[in-house]
């Protein structure tokens, strides 16, 4: 792969593993060898079932927890959770719940100026100016500065949370389900905001979501996680047009549509994800996979490139039909 | 007259008329959470109530089930179920229909199950009380219901405590519980919001299928337009405690007759139309204690004219069995009466 | 048995019901708080104005008028030494409120700081602090305070010291629990990720949000402290006479419980009213300071 | 089920450092008490020479650390010394009196529950209603009135007035004990019930507003079946830990109650021995009480675990 | 023993004595030990006196002795040899007969424990001889007037020779004596029970089947127990409720003349109490009748002398200082601190009467610009502080154990005795001399004169401000007959019976 074809990577995740719990038998592998690259100026979406490790990865990237093994590189330099404040500034995070992500006892002004002062982002006398700039950046009025979080709606709070993240002028924004808690009518404005931040500030965004429809609108690329591993990564169009991993296919098939659909049909995916404590051997998706083969029960597939910018962790990537149906007998 | 008589073929199972719910307060200025809501659900029909947060969907549903939170009361209106006025029922009579005739499924499977009781016993509670089954028979029925929701090894699962089950399983248990007495009407309050898409898909299919099997009608509350579209045949769109539009799902989706519905569709990402630009709705929903006169959506409506901010805006039939609360529906959407 | 509880978390419900009315209700609309404040303010006012209001000198004896029932001259009667009960009650408020409030301050500060440290940093610090807390917790409060006052000798300063040594533990426990919860809150995480140092995060972001529980507890603790004084008085270890003080008034009245039972009731009622006021304030503060928490 | 109680040994192990700390506190507290115990023992007849001799004999002039070590090693052999007052091993005294106090405390817990549960149910069933306020305010009187006053009033009314109960004492048979201890246990229960009622009411309200109670209602449960089947158990769970935490307060209350009701328990023994400077007795009682409170902590966890299937303390301990 | 008393609230026998029943006595404190030669505490003494009897006992008025296990005695001319005849046929509760060997053993045991127990009382005894089975001869070192009174003390009570082969400690776990009651059961902290000695030498006595002392620390509870019939006697009622004890109920509030003197002690090691004017001034400032009224509810009498009315040789006309404003002013002006001073008053904590007394004194002295701070110490610490003379003024009381003033006078005025003049360090050569003479003279009227002079001297010097004489108070059920307390504080239960 030549450097010219590939946009520059700002953030690279290599073989990152995160275990919770220290008992030998009871360790929970929240992340199990994750490789992922965030390119400069792109919006990379991370989707996956609940508990697949999305938030864990986000926390590792933001430095609020450290990985058990593996590396995180920022501009090619390794960073850890105990990072220097300048390194900390580069990566900022926005949380899911706008109601709990703001200190209920601080006005917007004091919350924002605190960050500005601590990091000496601007000289003291320019703080007021900077605050106005931030507010307009996230589409809020200056009058909002002197209000407490409780006086805002969810969407406005989420903007304030974003403004706080932007205050230190980061390069990278990690957004952990920033719109899941919002109403659709508000959600659109936040999605817009991300889009404009990317285009105007050149921010790189890792956008975590569980709603594929949202992601489809926003992301340049999408990474699908399953049980602590990346199952598939591709450009948005590619992923929806030709999903290669059976899990991705099932995910897409499960998305509720505005169009009518036959509910009598069996669901795209049976069962529930297995516990990350007792992972199945072989491919971790095999217990629910319609196409599972003997190989899948023994060996774990690595994330392999199947096409330009499209990697899949499946032994049969490229060989499966789209829109899978329950035809396991045929393969068995 | 605010409601146009509908040409109906069957006697409705559930009829809500002019329902107004609020928080009475001695010092005046009480909040009205739901205002003048009317709709009907026929036997076996799957009826959806959509709307954004705080629009009063859950309150409407809770009023039907008689489960309004403390302090919140039905101020006006009637609710008839099977021809009986449920609002005037004694608590005892009400208890007699809750379960065998009407059942409810809640949003949070996490909290809607009693954490200290085994799920099998929780399912069996209804049948024991209402069908007069023995303990063993009720338990057997519970296991059977669990089996019908597609959970493997139902006998073992029946002995589990809620916290030992995943969200999807818990929601299935809730469904098994609601349907255990074969109710005529199942009330669902966002039953899949807390679930993953893949699990949501499973649960929705299951719910639809079981309701069909048992001939139960469904009243389904959600904020997700796509989910109603997948589940229901008829729906109401609520905003600020009122119904803005009512109609068959397909018709409403294809040709909304109210600016709010239209705006809602425009702000929601459509999986099958990824290229469309999402248009947020500007402004905020009105205050419930001090609602603006006229159409509650008027302050945010792009079509609003002066007259929108005055007078009451009744729901009128703009097309066949398609009602809108917008005075200007004709002008804007060219509806034919 | 599979345990999914650890592995399966849920998104918080999209949004909880947040009735607008609850959100911005100003403090003066909080009935408990206002009622409590009114009661306590009246008490404090009575205490402050005691020299003006009290009809007699609280320690002035008049043995010819001892043990009189309520009358025009002595509204609440007189005690064994002929001192005016009403005057003693008013002056007693000064002592009791002073001891109640002062005795709470040191444990409040110490317990809060240690609890915050234990909860925030966790690890060894937490283990050590909490083991010390456990040790103190193993002794009933009364037992330790009585023993300590015994050791230190009766008197106001011993009471302060004994209470301080013992009751910081409760604050420590409460604050630690709150801090552990608060530490998980997203706004705290955000503050930490924003590069703020620990002191700042603790002081500015966690502190104000966890202190309400400690304050609420302090309200009931004041009542508790007054009860401690009363009990010490019963055991003869209380405030040095002839100082007018509710505890020693109750203890003095002890001799007459079977005959002049109301003598113990009068100061008892003062304790009850103060306790009521303080717990109402506590209730109100809980509501006010933690809007997301129901009573 | 039993597997969920696996935490108990671990929990008991954790109590060891606490017990150690307790011995430290007990030992040094007693050694802080001014005055030479030898003087107290000799009383009126103390002469400097006699005091010196006894001091020496009791090892009171050794370094404190050494004394502490001595105390610990004696303790390890189950030897807590002889009561200065009675000249008998304190352990015999403690064993004789501990059951009395344990019975009193257990009895008052039972009465407290009998008082608090219905009252808090009454309050929780109509929050904000007059009866709610009444239930919340009236018991506060119990909190503000000193225990000795409440105790004597109960005696006046129910023992002297009606003759239903004896005026203090302990009795000989178990039935006697229950009869004699009723009023003291009631006094204790009254003094603590405001706290319990408050928290029980709060947790009942929480439970009543919980989704699963709504679920139960949607199944047609109501009235008594709702309370018994869904509310009570869930509301009791937090109350268990509150009772556990407040048990220390109850034990502390026995100091006064036992004196008022002439009950030969640990509380009165402690007061007596403090005032008589009977240090071995003070140490023994304090140690016993502390160990008791620690064990109650473990017991609370066990009950908690048994009542609430969600709790897995085995996990929590490892975390 | 005679049962007739002339004292205040003494009960009159209601008909013929009835046998049977259990007498329940509610008391504030448990007994500590049954060892009659080592134990100083009244709660213990009152009990073991019922088990073990001495040779002589005190008459009901507390001023003289009379034979008990002895039948009489003879004194030699040099007053140094006493020959005592023992009562025949007296048996221990074990059934063994009491002989001179037992007597010798008992008195010797007591004498042996002079340093740790009551043996000091026998310090004049040189030797005890068992002259015959029923005769004992006691040889003295010097003439010693109080001997028979001393022998009447419980520490000289007769126990079986050689403790019946037991060790001392073993013996006192369940002591044996010749008394009307024998050992029953002791649940420490709860109750102590004695049962009737069926072989008691006074035929037909005791009337009671058993006596139980219940520990009831709270005075209100004790009162309620007697009123409720659960106890027959309240051993220690509060003065504050004493009168109400008897009103409208089946309880009689009884007072018995006592030998109790309550006084304010001045520590002459501390300034300015060396100054006799200061002591006299303070004595004149205190309103004793007010104290009597507020603290004793009028049940006491203001004290005028070192000796108490119940003690032989008490002189009613002793000029003890009473409240006297002129005198107070005069003495203060003459003193080293004419403008007043600040000082402290030590009292034991938990004693409501002393607390009230202290506050009244505080109030009285305040008028003369003497600022008193009340200092409360727990009883033991209070005791230690007094013994170590670490106090300024202190409230104390004394009661007699033997019917002879010497026990108290020697304690109170001899600065070189162990008690340093009752811990005041009061030193008056004259008083010391008078006391010595009184000890050694056997003649009644000589002693009376000596003690008169002594009382005058002490009253003038005011090493103590005498406050009041308090009677003994008991709440007694009207069913209890013949219950009497001697001025020395003990209450023999031999003649007590309960009507049905
Ligand atoms: N602090 C923790 N201790 C133990 N396990 C944890 C912890 N945090 C997360 N986990 C577990 O790690 C796994 C991954 O969690 P994570 O929060 O990263 O998932 P997620 O993909 O963000 O899920 P969701 O979509 O529900 O937010 C889950 O099984 C979770 O239970
Ligand atoms: N217990 C309550 N007391 C008072 N007001 C309440 C209560 N619960 C909800 N509300 C208010 O009632 C209004 C309608 O609430 P409702 O729960 O019906 O909305 P909803 O449409 O179901 O919203 P969501 O999608 O958030 O569930 C909201 O403004 C809410 O704040
Ligand atoms: Mg997450
Ligand atoms: Mg809702």
Automatic annotation (TrEMBL), chain A:
<dbReference type="GO" id="GO:0016887">
    <property type="term" value="F:ATP hydrolysis activity"/>
</dbReference>
<dbReference type="GO" id="GO:0055085">
    <property type="term" value="P:transmembrane transport"/>
</dbReference>
<keyword id="KW-0547">Nucleotide-binding</keyword>
<feature type="domain" description="ABC transporter">
    <location>
        <begin position="11"/>
        <end position="252"/>
    </location>
</feature>
<keyword id="KW-0067">ATP-binding</keyword>
<dbReference type="InterPro" id="IPR003593">
    <property type="entry name" value="AAA+_ATPase"/>
</dbReference>
<dbReference type="GO" id="GO:0005524">
    <property type="term" value="F:ATP binding"/>
</dbReference>
<dbReference type="InterPro" id="IPR013563">
    <property type="entry name" value="Oligopep_ABC_C"/>
</dbReference>
<dbReference type="InterPro" id="IPR050319">
    <property type="entry name" value="ABC_transp_ATP-bind"/>
</dbReference>
<dbReference type="Pfam" id="PF00005">
    <property type="entry name" value="ABC_tran"/>
</dbReference>
<comment type="similarity">
    <text>Belongs to the ABC transporter superfamily.</text>
</comment>
<dbReference type="GO" id="GO:0015833">
    <property type="term" value="P:peptide transport"/>
</dbReference>
UniProtKB/TrEMBL annotation, chain B:
<dbReference type="Pfam" id="PF00005">
    <property type="entry name" value="ABC_tran"/>
</dbReference>
<dbReference type="Pfam" id="PF08352">
    <property type="entry name" value="oligo_HPY"/>
</dbReference>
<keyword id="KW-0813">Transport</keyword>
<dbReference type="GO" id="GO:0005524">
    <property type="term" value="F:ATP binding"/>
</dbReference>
<dbReference type="GO" id="GO:0016887">
    <property type="term" value="F:ATP hydrolysis activity"/>
</dbReference>
<keyword id="KW-0547">Nucleotide-binding</keyword>
<keyword id="KW-1003">Cell membrane</keyword>
<dbReference type="GO" id="GO:0015833">
    <property type="term" value="P:peptide transport"/>
</dbReference>
<dbReference type="InterPro" id="IPR013563">
    <property type="entry name" value="Oligopep_ABC_C"/>
</dbReference>
<dbReference type="GO" id="GO:0005886">
    <property type="term" value="C:plasma membrane"/>
</dbReference>
<keyword id="KW-0472">Membrane</keyword>
<dbReference type="InterPro" id="IPR003439">
    <property type="entry name" value="ABC_transporter-like_ATP-bd"/>
</dbReference>
Automatic annotation (TrEMBL), chain C:
<keyword id="KW-0472">Membrane</keyword>
<dbReference type="InterPro" id="IPR035906">
    <property type="entry name" value="MetI-like_sf"/>
</dbReference>
<feature type="transmembrane region" description="Helical">
    <location>
        <begin position="32"/>
        <end position="54"/>
    </location>
</feature>
<protein>
    <submittedName>
        <fullName>ABC transporter permease</fullName>
    </submittedName>
</protein>
<keyword id="KW-1133">Transmembrane helix</keyword>
<feature type="transmembrane region" description="Helical">
    <location>
        <begin position="159"/>
        <end position="175"/>
    </location>
</feature>
<feature type="domain" description="ABC transmembrane type-1">
    <location>
        <begin position="93"/>
        <end position="282"/>
    </location>
</feature>
<dbReference type="GO" id="GO:0055085">
    <property type="term" value="P:transmembrane transport"/>
</dbReference>
<dbReference type="InterPro" id="IPR025966">
    <property type="entry name" value="OppC_N"/>
</dbReference>
<comment type="similarity">
    <text>Belongs to the binding-protein-dependent transport system permease family.</text>
</comment>
<dbReference type="InterPro" id="IPR000515">
    <property type="entry name" value="MetI-like"/>
</dbReference>
<feature type="transmembrane region" description="Helical">
    <location>
        <begin position="222"/>
        <end position="240"/>
    </location>
</feature>
Automatic annotation (TrEMBL), chain D:
<dbReference type="InterPro" id="IPR045621">
    <property type="entry name" value="BPD_transp_1_N"/>
</dbReference>
<feature type="transmembrane region" description="Helical">
    <location>
        <begin position="235"/>
        <end position="257"/>
    </location>
</feature>
<feature type="transmembrane region" description="Helical">
    <location>
        <begin position="100"/>
        <end position="125"/>
    </location>
</feature>
<dbReference type="Pfam" id="PF00528">
    <property type="entry name" value="BPD_transp_1"/>
</dbReference>
<feature type="transmembrane region" description="Helical">
    <location>
        <begin position="137"/>
        <end position="165"/>
    </location>
</feature>
<feature type="transmembrane region" description="Helical">
    <location>
        <begin position="177"/>
        <end position="197"/>
    </location>
</feature>
<feature type="transmembrane region" description="Helical">
    <location>
        <begin position="285"/>
        <end position="307"/>
    </location>
</feature>
<dbReference type="GO" id="GO:0005886">
    <property type="term" value="C:plasma membrane"/>
</dbReference>
<keyword id="KW-1133">Transmembrane helix</keyword>
<dbReference type="InterPro" id="IPR035906">
    <property type="entry name" value="MetI-like_sf"/>
</dbReference>
<keyword id="KW-0812">Transmembrane</keyword>
<dbReference type="InterPro" id="IPR000515">
    <property type="entry name" value="MetI-like"/>
</dbReference>
